[in-house]
Amino acid sequence: PQTALRTAALIAACVPMIVATLTWLLVRDRRARVNLPEFKATGAALLGAFKNARLWLVVGFLLLINFNPGVITPLYDHVEKAGLPHSQLAIMDMLFSVGNVIGALAFMTALSGRMSTRKTTIIGLLVGALGLLPMLFITGKTSAGVAYGVWGLTYMIVTLSQLSVAAEACPKRVEAVVFAALMSVSNFSSQY
């Protein structure tokens, strides 16, 4: 286990080092002068974002939707009581990730840009709630695998619908900064 952990850490450390090296070698930045009028307009837009009531509603939505106890701890207990070995948890996590990929593709092809953000969010929340139902029927490896795959698929649809709400609420000129702040709010609330 110690050797496996060290090997995994070494591999994980190599990827950012490779990206940093390639960035250093391949990316060429041109110096730019500060455009004072544009800088002031962007600053005014950023200050205006704090006065945007809709944006504050989205902040509240993201706080509430992500500030929940989650299902991981009770699910772990349930899977353990179903008699599944700990080695099966890694396979179930992999199936959850496969479900995430399928959910992202489903969202992209069926929901994104095809209907309003409101409808997408409602569908996302309903799908997310229904996606947890298979967890009630875990009795063995197969049912656990199916449940985790379905959960991964629906979890991604919920997540992407939330991101759509956040992206749509971002004011012009400061979309990147405001979206990053909204993601920080989302991450903060899911941690606590």
Description:
- The chain has 192 residues and is mainly alpha-helical.
- Helix content is 78%, strand content 0%.
- The chain has eight helices and no strands.
- It has helices at residues 2-26, 36-49, 53-66, 72-81, 86-111, 117-131, 141-169, 175-191.
- Helix 3 (53-66) packs antiparallel against helix 7.
- The longest helix has 29 residues, at 141-169.
- The chain is globular, with a radius of gyration of 21 Å.
- The model has no long low-confidence stretch (mean pLDDT 88).
Distance N terminus to C terminus? 31 Å
Average pLDDT reading:
88
Residue windows where pLDDT falls under 50 for at least 5 positions? none
Percent helix, as a range, is over 70%
Order of helices and strands: HHHHHHHH
The description of the largest β-sheet is: none
Strand content: under 5%
| Structural class assignment | mainly alpha
Helix count, per DSSP? 8
Anisotropy-based shape: globular
Oligomer designation:
single chain
Please give the number of β-strands. Answer: 0
Radius of gyration: 21 Å
Compose a concise summary of this entry.
The chain is mostly helical and about 190 residues long.
Keywords:
single chain; 192 residues; mainly alpha; 8 helices
Topology, please?
Blueprint: H1 2-26, H2 36-49, H3 53-66, H4 72-81, H5 86-111, H6 117-131, H7 141-169, H8 175-191
